[in-house]
Amino acid sequence: MKTLKIAIQKSGRLNEKSVDILSKCGLSFENYKSSLISPVQNFPLEILFLRDDDIPEYVQDGIADLGIVGENVIEETGADVTYLHRLGFGKCTLKIAVPNHSEINSLNDLEGKSIATSYPNILKKFLNKNQVQADVRVISGSVEISTNLGLSDAICDIVSTGGTLKSNGLKPFADVLSSEAILIAKNGIADENEQVQELLLRLRSVLRAKE
Ligand code: PRT
Ligand code: ZN
Which sequence spans correspond to the domains of the chain? Predict the structure, then answer.
C-alpha cells in the first residue's frame, strides 16, 4: 500500500487544530519539532509540515496527496485541487474596511480609490464581479496600518473577532470571502483510494461528534 502524504501548517493559527483533528482520527505521530516530515505510526501516512501558502500548490502538483489549509489561501493561489471536507475551524472572513470617518461607505464609493491587501487575486476577482475599478496595492503584512500611513484609501484583510480593525480605527463594509480550514486532495486521487476513504470516514465521525 502506498504511503500517502498530508501537508499541514508547520506553525501558526491552523497548526494545533490540524494536529488535533488528525489525532482524533486515531493517527499517532509526533508534532513538528525539528523535522519537516513525521511518519504516522499506525497508518500508511506521512505528515509534512509546511508554510500554509505552499500547501495548495504542493497538493495540486502531487508533492502531497492531501492538505489542510484555509480556503482564503486556496482561492488566492488559484490552485486546482479537490475540496474533500470543510473542517469547521480557522473560520474568518476576508473583508474590505475603511477608516471610521471615511466617506467611502459602499462598493460604488471605491471607484478610483486604492485598496491595500495581501489577497490581490481574490480582491480583483471580487471588484471585477461588482464592476468596480480600483487600484489594488499588494502589501505582504500589517495591512491594517496602511490607511493610517496614507498608503491606501481602504484595506482588504482577514477578520475574525474584528478587534484588529477596531484598534486601528477601521470599519468593515463588505464581505469578500468567508473561509475556514478545508481538507483538500490532489485531483483524481480520492475516489478510488482506500486510505483516503478510510480517513474521510473517521473524519466524518470526529466532526459529527463535535456537533
Ligand atoms: O507561517 P505561515 O505562512 O504558515 O502562516 P501565516 O502567518 O500566513 O498564517 P496564520 O497562521 O496567521 O493564519 C493561517 C490561516 O488562519 C489563515 O490563512 C486563515 O485561513 C486563518 N485565520 C483565521 C486567520 C485569522 N483567523 C485571523 N484573524 N488568519 C489571519 N488572521 C489575522 C488577520 O490577518 C488580522 O491581522 O488576524 C488579524 C485579525 O484578527 P481579529 O481577530 O483582530 O479580527
Ligand atoms: Zn502564510
Answer: 4-90+180-210, 92-179
